[in-house]
Amino acid sequence: MVLKGKVHKFGDDINTDYIISGRYKFKTLDLKELAKHVMEDIYPNFYQRIRPGDFIVAGKNFGCGSSREQAPLAIKYAGIAAVLAKSFARIFYRNSINVGLPLVEVDADRFKDGDEIEVDLEKGVVRNLTRNFELEFPPYPQIMRKILQDGGLIEHFKKYGTFKLD
Amino acid sequence: MGMTITEKILAAHAGLDKVEPGEIVQVRVDGLLANDVTAPGAIEQFRLVGSQKVFDPDRIFLVPDHFAPNRDIPSAEQCKLLREFAYEQGITNYFEVGRMGIEHALLPEEGLVLPGDLIIGADSHTCTYGALGAFSTGVGSTDLGVAMALGETWLKVPSSIKFVVNGTLNPWVFGKDIILYIIGMIGVDGALYKAMEFAGEAIRNLSMDSRFSITNMAIEAGGKSGIIEPDEKTAAYVEARAKRPYKFYQSDPDANYEKVHSLQAEKIDLQVALPHLPSNVRSVYQINDVELDQVVIGSCTNGRLEDLRVAAAILNGKKVHPKVRLLVFPATQKIYLQALKEGLIQTLVESGAAVSTPTCGPCLGGHSGVLAKGERALATTNRNFIGRMGHSESEVYLSGPAVAAASAVAGRIVPPEEVVPPERWRDFKNKLEE
Question: Are B222 and B191 in contact (CB under 8 A)?
């Protein structure tokens, strides 16, 4: 699957409170409503600027903080196709794969706000169409690749009744 | 090559003799935790996989602590969902308001998490239980929902970083100062995906309460878990509480660590983390004229008995500054009751503090002490991100209970000696040792 869209650039250590404030936790049951508040404390009206299929590109430790799954869900429901970052916090990483939001580890410094990019998840390649370069990214561990392929952890578990580690 | 305590616990739960960092293992879990924010999602996922019954109703812990007592109608709906699921599944460890406490203080206190356990929880501060010599880590609602059905999860074995703290701690310095110091040293991603192991004379001399404060904040350095080898203090703590067998694991002398940091306790001053990252720490002596609107003493980091004793020792005979609101949240009902018996609550109330029933409340900007635009708080909580306690233009500073209590009196961030004479520490220390 090749994803194509525009880059929205963020800095280092973007935590789950910035992605979706703890104030909105109680709205868990309505994800479309929740998505409207994505990143609002650090980037007012970010939601309005997203075109479905766009990407977030960020620095190190993206998604640090809370275990709230509303964080990757809010990003996904806001229309973001994938998040690219220098590194990810571990609970966020796991949650994103489980809910079917692809994450990619790349050198984010080479991307600027507004760049048009393509992400090929199968081949492990990011193409920057604006700046004309390609970057490869490391493959997921086997279990995570299976979970993503199956469309999230629930579908994976329904298929195998356990975790398919190899 | 030997194994670390973390590797030994993971191997035992995977049914293997040995595991190595980077290996992916399927493990049996001894306990699963969810709260009013994360349980609704986990319950939904549990239903989606088509399960009828949880794997073991005695090993699932449901605690409505974040937005409880219900702050509004949506949070009341979430708590209701949790409650109804608990009754439907016959979950023995559901804690209703009035018996509820902040999850990471409550579960160890109830003897539900024990040394050698493997615990997962849908809350990032689940890493707290490492203070007991258990492996515990935070997961999301989907992982938890599946584990509720299966009783197992998968984990990547983390590599370990060891922090050895030797020497004697300075007056009023406790676990919180040690962990803030370490996070300041390595940064908010300094232990990303790693197990943080805390050892050394200064750690062994800490109370269990202070040890919980340390492992609680492993996640603030990106850690997968935090752990302390169990000793005679751990034994004394769990003996009275455990209702099932437990096991003490120790790291082998030839265990492999990615890095070992040696720290000298005397060099660790009272610490304060400035907005907006827990790694943005300074010694309290480097801070001048930071005026406060609110001080919060509580949370899964510092709402335990030792914290209330420290706060009361400093506030005894003092008054909270007229412009400051001091909010105190004992972390559990047992802590609240013991604080009542010891006269701590009376001291706090006489000083002008508002004392609340246990809840996470303002720590995550939930309720019971949310900040207005431009307001500034000092809190014994664990995160000071933008907007964490309320308005996106408010500020949160983090410290231990001694600096928090002293600052509530002064109306600005100060070390305890600006408010109380040195004898106060001597008396307090003597009382602790009794």
Answer: yes
Q: Specify whether B256 is located in the same domain as B275.
A: no
Option in A95, A143, A162 nearest B140 (CB): A95
Q: Name the residue of chain A whose CA is nearest to B41's CA.
A: A28
Q: What is the pLDDT of residue B71?
A: 94
pLDDT digits (tens, 9 = 90+) for B120-135: 999 999 999 999 999 9
Q: Does A33 touch chain B (CB under 8 A)?
A: no
B74: nearest CB among A27, A42, A67: A27
B155 plus B201 within the same structural domain? yes
Domain annotation for chain A: domains and CATH numbers: 2-139 (3.20.19.10)
pTM for this predicted structure? 0.96
Residues B120 and B229 in one domain: yes
Mean pLDDT calculated for residue range B188-214: 98
Is the peptide bond prior to B278 cis by the omega test (within 30 degrees of 0)? no
Among candidates B74, B145, B150 on the partner chain, residue whose Cβ is nearest the Cβ of A26:
B74
Contact with chain A for residue B87, Cβ under 8 A: no
How many CB contacts within 8 angstroms connect chain A with chain B? 143
Give B126's contacts in chain A (Cβ within 8 Å).
67
C-alpha distance across the termini of chain B, in Å: 43
Residue of A nearest to B25 (CA): A165
Check whether residue B238 and residue B357 sit in a common domain: no
Cross-strand bridge partners of residue B163: B198, B261
| Cα–Cα distance, B384 to B124 (Å, whole number) | 15
- Per-residue pLDDT, averaged over B92-108, amounts to 98
Task: Out of A90, A99, A163, name the one closest to residue B142 (CB).
Answer: A99
Token pair 């605690």: residue:
B63
Q: B420 CA to chain A: closest CA distance, Å?
A: 35
Kindly state whether residues B249 and B376 are assigned to the same domain. no
Rounded to 5 degrees, φ, ψ at B198 are -110, 130
Mean pLDDT of B291-302: 98
Distance to chain A for B357, nearest Cα, Å: 20
Is the same domain home to B206 and B352? no
Average pLDDT, chain B: 97
CATH number where B207 lies: 3.30.499.10
User: Which amino acid makes up residue B269?
Assistant: D
Number of independent structural domains in chain B? 2
Sequence-distant (6+) residues with CB within 8 A of A78 are A35, A36, A38, A46, A47, A50
What single-letter amino acid sits at B363? C
Give per-residue pLDDT as tens, B223-276: 999 999 999 999 999 999 999 999 999 999 999 999 999 999 999 999 999 999
- The predicted structure's pLDDT at residue A24: 75
In the listed set B264, B291, B316, which residue is the last one of a domain according to the structure?
Answer: B264
Select from B199, B231, B264 the last residue of a domain.
Answer: B264
- How much is the pLDDT for A1? 78
Instruction: Quote the domain boundaries for residue B84.
Output: 5-264
Looking at residue A26, its pLDDT comes to 56
Partner B contacted by A145 (CB < 8 A): no
- Residue among B273, B297, B302 at smallest CA distance from B287: B273
